[in-house]
Amino acid sequence: ELYEAFPTNVAFKNGLAISYSKLGETHSSLGHLAEALRFFEEYARLEKELYEAFPTNVAFKNGLAISYFKLGSTHDKLGNAEAALSFFEKDLEVTKDLYEAFPNNVEFKNNLALSYMSMGQRYENAANPTEARKFFEQAEALWSQLVQAAPQFVEFKENLAWVQKKLAGQ
């Protein structure tokens, strides 16, 4: 209602985008994937508009990357392999730009590792082990750096162990 009443208010638009993301996450957790997809599409649309209007705003660019990742994940769960790959490729492109611009940002480094992991899984599912391995190795390199720099973060250790098992063929 606030955004509809004040459509030029950037904070209201961003708040609406975040609300769509949260609704998508909730529906995804409940197994309502078609509904989750609808909310993630709205989230992505708003994030894209925000980023295009404010291309120097790093938070909007990161939001756009995250929206692509969520769309890719949802399409993957729905069995839409081509759509999933397309969104994961978009996520990878934007996330790589963020990481290259801010190489010391832990969140961007982790998100890039997650992007590589997702791409590896797509190629693994498409029976292209050479491409899958390339992406898994890139994820491993980043998570190795993150574990070394921040050993207290269990998520980094778990993701590193997961990708190492993939690379070992387990």
Description:
This protein is mostly helical and 170 residues long. It is built from 8 helices and no strands. The protein has helices at residues 2-5, 10-29, 33-53, 58-78, 81-101, 106-125, 129-149, 154-167. α5 (81-101) packs antiparallel against α6 and α6 runs antiparallel to α7. The longest helix is centred in the first third of the chain and has 21 residues, at 33-53. The protein is globular. The mean pLDDT is 93.
Would you spell out the secondary-structure blueprint of this structure?
Blueprint: H1 2-5, H2 10-29, H3 33-53, H4 58-78, H5 81-101, H6 106-125, H7 129-149, H8 154-167
Helix pairs in contact: 2-3, 3-4, 4-5, 4-6, 5-6, 6-7, 7-8
Please outline the major beta sheet: none
Distance between the termini: 51 Å
- Output mean pLDDT: 93
**Beta-strand percent range:** under 5%
Element pattern in H and E? HHHHHHHH
Structural class: mainly alpha
- Enumerate how many helices there are, as a single number: 8
What is the rounded Rg?
A: 17 Å
In short:
This protein has 170 residues and is mostly helical.
List keywords for this structure.
single chain; mainly alpha; 84% helix; 170 residues
